[in-house]
């Protein structure tokens, strides 16, 4: 039985562009907060804005490593000791890397298996399109957490990073036909 792939390269490119757009907005928020807000301990999935941002950037970087078959990929979230600016540069690079990867990755490979390692040990495998979809969903989920965390530390200069907002703002360039 042939599997039917419902997503195509244009759609995946649009999602990669959306992810980069939303990440850039989140990064602008992070550029506006002070070190106290960045490291303030907050009850959430992660203990601070810093830890949440590290997690998002780490996930983007590690999936790119898995897709590119990097032999010893490093989970940034386990080893990052840099500054906020260092993390922002890594995040920007991963975001751009995701767009470039999707642009160059052949659509006929979307159903190929991707082997990956779990952060706490063990391996898994999913089709590429599933891992890509997971990454986009994962980043969206944790950017939403950033909004809540930022509000809790008193930052209120927030704007929408919703996919519908992205479509509205880029309507002429993202029409899928």
From TrEMBL:
InterPro entries: DinB (IPR007837), DinB/YfiT-like (IPR034660)
Keyword set includes NAD: no
Gene3D superfamilies the UniProt entry points to: dinb family like domain
Pfam families documented for this protein: DinB (PF05163)
Superkingdom of the organism of origin: Bacteria
Annotated SUPFAM superfamilies: DinB/YfiT-like putative metalloenzymes
Residues annotated for a divalent metal cation binding in this entry: 55, 138, 142
Alphabetical keyword list: Metal-binding
UniProt KW Metal-binding keyword: yes
Recorded GO MF terms: metal ion binding
Protein family according to the UniProt entry: Belongs to the DinB family.
Name of the featured protein: Damage-inducible protein DinB
Organism: Niastella vici
